[in-house]
# Entry
Amino acid sequence: MGLALLKNLSAPVDTPIDNLAQLKKGDSAIIIGFADDEETLFMKTRLQELGFLPGEKIVVHAEAFPGRDPMAIRVGNSIFALRRSEAEKIRIVQASNDAD
# Structure
């Protein structure tokens, strides 16, 4: 019984990815919306003007070294640098990592 418990504790736990900051280089996702708080309002408007719209596919193109901040995100044919604190405000569902 003790061995079975240890195996269960070491099993990886799947955590759902719900914001852009959780992705790594090469990952892709679909934007589903933005965080709903007052500090996000201006940033949300600006990101939407740049093409970060619900339904749009995004790809993490690169991450800075060290620390992975900022991250380069491809939207359409453009690449934008976002701080992880900004990326946390973008709600996503993860997409397959097919080559574009």
The domain at 19-95 is CATH 2.30.30.90 (SH3 type barrels.). The chain has three helices and five strands.
